[in-house]
Specification:
The complex is a heterodimer of chains A (347) and B (313). Chain A is mainly α and 347 residues long. Chain A is built from 13 helices and two strands. Chain A has helices at residues 11-35, 40-52, 55-80, 88-103, 110-139, 143-163, 198-215, 217-227, 229-234, 239-266, 277-287, 292-316, 322-342; strands at 2-5, 343-346. Chain B has a domain at 22-229. The chains are: A mainly alpha (347), B mainly alpha (313).
Amino acid sequence: MRLERRTHVPLHLVVIAPLAAIFTALLLAAGLIAAAGVNPLTAYGEMLAGALGSRLSITEMLTRATPLIFTGLAAAVAFRARLWNIGGEGQFFVGALVTAWIGHSLGVPGWIGIPLLMLAGMTAGAALLAGPAYLRLRFGVDEVVTTLLLNFIVILFVGLMIEGPMRDPLAFGWPSSVPVDGDFRLPDLIPRTRLHIGLLFAIAAAGAVWLILARTVFGAETRAAGLNASAAAFAGISLPRTIMGVALLSGALAGLAGSVEVMGVTAGVTTTMSPGFGYAGIVVAMLAALHPAGVVAAAVFVATVFVGADAMSRATGVPSFIADVIVALCLLTMIVALLFTTYRVRR
Amino acid sequence: MSDAIDLLLNTSLWASVLRIATPLIFGVLGALLCERSGVLNLGIEGIMTMGAMSGWLAVYMGAPLLVGLMIAALCGAVMGLLHAMLTVPLGLSQHVSGLGITLFASALAYYLYRLLVEVGDLPPTIEPFQPLNVPGLSDIPVLGPILFSQALPTYLALFAVAAMAYVLARTPLGLAIRMTGESPHAVEAQGLNPIRIRIGAVVVGSALMAVGGAFLTTTAFNSFFPGMVQGRGWICIALVVFASWRPGKALVGAVLFAFFDAYQLRLQTAIEGVPYQLFLMAPYVLSIVALVLVARRAEIPAALMVPYRRGER
C-alpha cells in the first residue's frame, strides 16, 4: 500500500474532508464522555441546545465566533505562505491592550475613533509578528519558537500594565485595565444581547482576505511562496518581501481580534479575557483548509463546541475541558483528512 | 546592588539550579532525540503536561513514586507514537501535528484530572521525592549540598545525559539515528528502515519529555494544576538549537538556563520596586536571545522536518 499524489483534487472531497474530520473527532470524544458516565448522545444534544437552542445562546455563540474568525484568518494567511505564526494569542493581547490604552482618553467622536482604534490594534499585532519574521529572514531563527515564547512575554506584560500604569481604580477583585471610552463601544447587532457589529467586521475581513489572496499579485506570490519557495524565488518573487508582507497581514488580523473584543465585549483588558483565541484560531484555519470562506464556518463550529460544552457541563457534570479535547482532536483528524484530499491510496 | 551579588554566593541558589534544570534536562534530551532522527516534536509542551498529570495521578492512587515516573513515561510514549504515526508514515506537517498533539495532550490531561480527582478548595497533594544524600559526598562543604543532596529524578536526568551521549556517539543504533536525521535515503540504502528508526526515536524521546513533566508534580511540587508546565517545553525546543543537537551541550544549556531562572526568582525578593513580571519574562526573553546568538552557526540535522516517503524525492 502506498500514497500517490493526486493531480487534481475533486471538489466533493474538499467539502467532505472537514465533515469527516469533525465526525471522527466527535466519535473519539464520545468515548471520553462515556467514561464520565454520561450518554454521549445526551451530552451532544445538550451541547447543541446550549449553543443553538435559543436566540440568546445563538448570539452568545456568534459573539464567541467573532474573535475566532479574526485569529483563524490570521493563522490561515500565515500558514498558506508556510510562515508558522503560533503567536496569535500574543498578538490578540497587544491589540487589545493598545486599544484600551488609547481608547480610554481619545477625545474624538466614535465614528472616527473606532476605525482609528482598530487601526491601532492592527498595527500593534503586525509589529509584534514583524519581530519574529525579521529574525527568521535575517538570522534564520525558527518563528514557531519565537512566536510561542512571545505569547508568554506578552501576557506577563499585560499583567504588568493592568496592575500598574493601566490599572482601573474602579475595578473590583481581579485587576483590569482602564476601559475604553463609552463612545468607542461597538453598537449591538441585536439589542439586549452581547452580539456586536464586530461580527460584520469579521465577515468583511474574511471577504477582504479572500480578495487579497485570490485576486492580487501579493496573493499569488503568497501562494507560490507556500507551495514551493525555491521555485517562487526562481520566478523572481522576493521571498523576504512576501514573508514580511504575510507577517504584517497575519499579525494585523490577530491584533484586530483583540481590538474588536475590547470595543465589543470586555471594554477593559484582563489576563483572562481570551480562552485561547489565538491557539483555537490555528484549529479554525486548519478545519477551513486555510480558505477564508471556510474560516467563517469553522469559527462558528468551534464557537458552538465551546459555548455548548459550558452548557453541557452544567447540565451533565462532564468537565468542560471536553471542548478543548474535541477541538484538538478536530485538528488532528483534519490534517489526516486533508492528506487524503491531496493523496490517494494505491495498493 | 550588593544584595544581588551576595545572592550569587548563596549555596541554596546553587543547590536549586540542578533542581530547576531537571525537567529541562529530560525535555531537552527528548526533543534532541526526536530531532536527531529528523522529527520536530512540538507536542513537547502537551506531553510534559500529560506526564505531570499521569505521574502525579498514579502516585495519588497509591503507586510508588518510581512507578509514577514509569506511568508518565508510558503516557508520553503513547502521545509520541501518535505524533510519530502522523508525521513519519503519513508524512504530515510536523509543525501542525506537533501543535495538535500539544493541544490534545494538555486538554486530555486537564479533562482526566477533573474527571478522576475530587478537587476541593486546595488541590490534593502527594508525598513527593525527598532529597537523597549520597553517603560521604553530601557532607562536603558547598559542593555537597549543590551536587549530592538532590532528589532521585535529578540523578536519573544526569545519567540520561551520559546514556544519550554514549548511545548517539558510540553505538551502531546511535549512528543509525543520526544518519536518519541527515539522510534517510542513505539509511534505506544500508538496508535499515528509516521509518521505524524515526518512530522509535520519537516514542522514546516523548517518554523522556513526559518524565520531565512528572518531575514537576512528584518532586518540585506535590500537586497538579492547569498551566503548570508554563512554556518549559517551548524553552526546551529553543535549548536544543542552542545546544547544536548535542547532549553534553544540552546539559550545559539547561543548567545555565536554570541558573538564570533561580537567580531571577531570588532577585525578585531582593530588589524592590521592580514589577515581578519583568523578572518572570527573563527566561523567555533569554531563550529568544540564545536562539538568535546560535542561529548563524547551527548545525541543523539536514533532514529535520523533511518527511521521508519511499520512492519520492
